[in-house]
Amino acid sequence: MTQPTKDELWFASEPEPRCYLCGYKFTPAARDYFLGRSRVLPTVSLLVDFTRPRLKVRHLQIEIDHVQPVVDGGSNEIANLRLACGLCNIIKSRFGSIYDTYSWPVRHLRHPDLGWVTIPQPLWLLRVLSLRARCEYRDGCAATVETHEMFAAPWSVSGSLNPVNIKVCCSDHDPWASKRLIRPSLLA
Fold first, then answer.
1. What is the DSSP string of 115-162?
2. What pLDDT, on a 0 to 100 scale, did the predictor assign at position 68?
3. 69 CB-near residues (< 8 Å, 6+ apart)
4. Residues 46, 54: contact at Cβ < 8 Å?
């Protein structure tokens, strides 16, 4: 994409540009790199969200996503373009439904505090986050992907993180807020 297209998308997303799929707030380094103000890439954190690990620099970068993929007839018109974090853009790829995804073996993680937890299939998680697009706190919450990053937690702690058992929550209502971030080496 051209720099004028990037600028137009960025400034249309003001005052606080975020990934349109998960609500991730872009870092100043990602912003400056995307807008061509700097050649310094964002840096990967020492701790990652075990449900959506941003393990590579690309996962933190700002990318332009086609809402309707080009291979499915989508255009490069501004109306079809959105800002996305690299991780969401990679996961979404050209898929339009949770049923379009590739097969994904069930993976588990021995979490230091939670014990054995299921790592959700990335596209399932992304679809639930982006389609619900708001915090599902039982007493109500005004947080949406436009204002907050959204996280996945289980409705039932005894179940695996699958589309039926994923609850979307903001950081204020995240039951795993203090347990979400782990060392990347635990994911190996």
1. EEEEEPPHHHHHHHHHHH-B---TT----BTTTS--EEEESSTTS-SS
2. 87
3. 93, 94, 96
4. no
Distance CA 109, CA 130 (A): 24
pLDDT band at 101; cut points 50, 70, 90? low
- 154 membership: H or E segment, kind and range: strand 151-154
Report the C-alpha gap between 34 and 27 in whole angstroms.
Answer: 11
36: left (phi over 0), alpha (psi -120 to 50) or beta: left
**Dist CA 186 CA 112 (whole Å):** 9
From residue 177, alpha-carbon distances to 62, 152, 182 in Å are: 24, 10, 11
> Which pTM was predicted?
0.90
Distances (CA, A) of 59 to 48, 99, 142: 11, 23, 27
pLDDT in tens, 116-147: 998 888 888 898 999 999 999 999 999 999 99
**Is the model's pLDDT at 99 over the cut of 70?**
no
